[in-house]
UniProtKB/TrEMBL annotation:
Residues 3-189 form the ABC transporter domain. It comes from the Bacteria. GO terms for molecular function: ATP binding; ATP hydrolysis activity. SMART domains: AAA. InterPro entries: AAA+_ATPase, ABC_transporter-like_ATP-bd, ABC_transporter-like_CS, ABC_Transporter_VariousFunc, P-loop_NTPase. Keywords: ATP-binding, Nucleotide-binding, Transport. This is Heme exporter protein A. It comes from Thermus arciformis. It holds the Pfam family ABC_tran.
């Protein structure tokens, strides 16, 4: 078991966004979070990542979790090479950053301030393939990606599940059907 949610609830002010949700996730599983705007997908990912505290219930996590926000956040003044080297050093990891940039079709020496939104999304995926978390928490990973980028995303998720678990919040039903074993539907707020 990599992740277990027990009767998880989250309230902002008077509004309950997540209500009494239980879920358990094993290594190798991919789960899609579906639901309209404002239904609580990002909130649930942030609860899973430990970035938000539940109002009620519990989140039990094992291993290393990484949350990919939408849009991803980077240091604008670093180049892709510098950012990946920083990330690897920060996580005490080693990896073929040059190979990862090549695979995702990205320039090594351009400052991230000059990256398009799709290039930033590609870089965020390249970064995850290098850091290899146990639990991948992806918020709308398809956003801003072109067709080739979406194919790379599917390939990345399929590879990730070999040693990890993936939870993705998405508005793309076709992506969810292509990569996920099951879906959790969150209702409208
Ligand atoms: N920090 C916060 N304070 C107050 N309300 C919040 C906060 N974060 C989220 N909410 C509210 O929680 C609800 C769920 O938001 P969330 O971002 O989780 O939805 P979502 O399903 O990810 O939406 P989208 O599909 O638009 O990305 C919304 O009504 C939102 O306004």
């Amino acid at each position: 078991m990599l992740l277990r949610l027990e009767a998880l609830s989250k309230r902002f002010g008077r509004d309950w966004v997540i209500r009494d949700l239980s879920l358990s996730l094993d290594r190798g599983e991919v789960v899609a979070l579906l639901g309209p705007n404002g239904s609580g997908k990002t909130t649930l990912l942030r609860l899973m990542a430990g970035l938000l505290k539940p109002t009620r219930g519990r989140v039990e996590r094992q291993g290393h979790a990484l949350f990919l926000p939408n849009p991803p956040a980077f240091h604008r003044h670093l180049t892709a090479r510098e950012h990946l080297l920083f990330d690897l050093a920060f996580h005490g990891a080693a990896g073929d950053w040059e190979g990862a940039l090549k695979r995702f079709g990205l320039p090594a020496e351009l400052p991230l301030a000059a990256f398009s939104s799709g290039m930033k999304k590609r870089l965020a995926l390249a970064r995850l393939t290098l850091l290899r978390p146990d639990l991948w928490l992806l918020d709308e990973p398809e956003t801003a990606l072109d067709q080739e980028g979406r194919a790379l995303l599917q390939e990345t998720i399929r590879e990730a599940r070999k040693g990890a678990s993936v939870v993705l919040a998405t508005h793309d039903r076709a992506l969810a059907e292509a990569v996920a074993d099951r879906a959790v539907w969150l209702g409208a707020a």
